[in-house]
Amino acid sequence: MDNTILVVNCGSSTLKLALFDGNSLKCTATGLGERLNHDDAVAWIDGIEGDIRLPAGATHRQALEAMTRALSDSGLLAGTPTAIGHRVVHGGENFREAVLIDNEVRQAINECASLAPLHNPVNLSGIDSTLSLYPNVPNVAVFDTAYHQTLPPKAYLYAVPHSYYRDWGVRRYGFHGISHSFMLTEAARRLGKTPATTSIISAHLGNGCSITAIRDGLSADTSMGLTPLEGLVMGSRSGDIDPGLFDYLKSKGVAQDQLHHVLNHESGLLGLSGQTNDMRKLCDLAEHGHEPSLIAIEVFCFRLARYIGAMMASLRHLDALVFTGGIGENSARVREQTLDNLQLLGFDIDDQLNRCSGEYSDGHIESAESKFPVLVIPTNEERVIAREAARLAIASNGSETPG
Ligand code: ADP
User: Fold this and answer.
1) Which residues does a 6 A CB cutoff place in the pocket of ligand 1?
2) Taking the complete model, does pTM exceed 0.90, yes or no?
């Protein structure tokens, strides 16, 4: 019988699907739905010609139905999946690892929606859709926050009245945990170590950006907080700001909901450059002398460098600094400009290795003089979700775990 794992990743207006072979964990198909809940919603699947037909304003559920039907009709999905893995953004303090979804888990994910109103409801709609499409298939939730549940109180508490934490759960939760934990496993493998004895600083730089100090395999500090707004400069999110800004802008007539929108969607690289949230385009603009783009990149790299320094406070030794995510994997300029700020700490990269990192399978870009290894490792969150779904589905049947 076919052993196929379906991975579902619902974003606020996107739906990413992937199929994996449950034994080898090789990806066999990927698909993307975009602009969902908008008139011009579209979807396609790699390897299937043309768009997948969607009704105007298609919801996540409608896109999921159309895309899985297309996967079945094309033969990419034979029969039903063995297990389905869902990315869930916020698991609060309830989930330290991936879990099989039952009513209780569903309820707990729903309760965390107040902490992630843009993400958890849409994650739940993906879960509900696959539960009704494939009623007898195990569904597994893999949380972005779970890996960070080992943060010590000194790293997760804000210096605000303790009752805010006790009564309302106000604390730093951290995100991108699926990617950071994958960086740990991959870095350890490349360094010939076990994950449990490996300490790294993992910088995930995509549209959202976060950095995590991993000490002996465990998340020890991270830059994102109660929400994914805190920390590094991102594509359109501000990252850290002075909370005093709220009152000041209020006095200037900026309403609370407007401020929320500005900090999440009009700030970061986009806000600084006034042009784009796309690092590749910014680098092009900067090369053509566009001053605001140059400055946007400089602020991005300087904030990142400050955080790399800050992450050192959680470690006793450092096995490697790791770059990942669309920017981390592809932008030699960002890596170079960031580490230029950190010469005092002894990071040094080899120019040529940095420019050609993709061609070197081990990902090392440090120079011979560098005090620490520096690695570029492609992230693969979907594969982690597939692995967890396969593992828990098999465990629920009482058989062996795949390799
Ligand atoms: P998401 O967080 O949405 O998954 P990605 O991890 O795909 O995003 O990262 C998207 C970012 O990666 C964009 O800013 C994009 O410009 C940047 N990026 C991709 N390729 C390059 C490149 N060659 N040089 C610089 N930036 C790049």
Assistant:
1) 206-208, 235, 278-280, 283, 325-327, 330-331
2) yes
